Structures are given as C-alpha cells and as structure tokens.
Amino acid sequence: MLAINNEQKFNATVKEALTKSANFPRWQNAINKAVAQIELHGEFMTWMPETKSLLIWSQDSNDIHAANGVCDCEAYKHGFPCWHRAAARLVRLYMEARLEESNNIPYLKTTIERKAERLAGIRIN
Ligand SMILES: [Zn+2]
Fold first, then answer.
1. Taking the domains of the chain in order of start, what are their residue ranges?
2. Which of 14, 76, 79, 94 has its Cα between 20 and 30 A from that of 104?
3. How far apart are CA 7 and CA 4, in angstroms?
4. According to the model, what pLDDT value does residue 40 have?
5. How many angstroms is it from 74 CA to the middle of ligand 1?
6. For residue 1, how far is its CA from the centre of ligand 1 (angstroms)?
7. How far apart are the CA of 12 and the centre of ligand 1, in A?
8. What pLDDT does residue 1 have?
C-alpha cells in the first residue's frame, strides 16, 4: 500500500517531472499514466526504501514489476519509457522531498558523515 499523505508535495513533484520531460513525449505519457495508476491503484504498490524501488502489481497485465532505474516489463525490454519507472521515480522524488522536510526540523535532523570529494580539483560537496 502506497500512502501519498502530502498531496501538495506529490503534485509539485509531478509538475516538476512534467516540466523536465517537456521534450520527451513518451516520458510525459509514462508520467501521466503513472500518476493515474498511483491515484487509482496505489493500494497495489509498495515503496521499498532499501532498494529505492517501487513494487507494482500491474492491474493491466496482472504481473508484478519491481521498478527503479530499470524495470522488467516488455516496454523496458524494448527500450521504451514505461509508467512503472516513471511511477518509481515520482515516488522516490516524493519520498526524498518528504525526508528533506523532516531534515529541516532541527531536532529531527539525522547526522550524516560527509566526506569532501574532489572532482577535477573542484570540491563537489
Ligand atoms: Zn516497466
């Protein structure tokens, strides 16, 4: 069961994804289908934080897909964007945005050891 509790945050995530994929109509279609599927069939999806993947029991094909950057469906095998990957990415961005929110509350801040890395002589973090 996928719970989207902060609809405003989710809508903002979707809007940004659609803006970024403006030149990729296939991705736009995938994103739109993903949003519709999340709204209609979110109860058949599970977010796996360990692997940052979304488990989807597809109501179209009755298959279960595990999607993150890759997928195991027919569209992916043929090199096309699929709504599973779009859904996984939307949910990941949404979940990360939610984490960021809680990190802004000082007493909820997690301590993360960050090591400065250099790339071509430029400090990147
Ligand atoms: Zn797929």
1. 7-123
2. 14
3. 6
4. 92
5. 7
6. 19
7. 23
8. 82
CA of 45 to the centre of ligand 1 (A): 13
How confident is the model over 103-123, as pLDDT tens digits? 666 565 555 555 555 556 666
Residue 27's pLDDT is: 96
CA 75 to centroid of ligand 1, rounded, Å? 6
Low-confidence ranges of the chain (pLDDT < 70): 99-125
Q: How far is the CA of 10 from the centre of ligand 1 (A)?
A: 21
Token pair in block for residue 69: 């950057």
Can you tell me the distance from the alpha carbon of 59 to that of 44, in angstroms, rounded to the nearest whole number?
8
- In the prediction, which pLDDT does 48 show? 93
CA distances from 101 to 20, 28, 46, 48, 98 (A): 22, 27, 22, 20, 5
Ligand 1 mean position to 9 CA, how many Å?
24
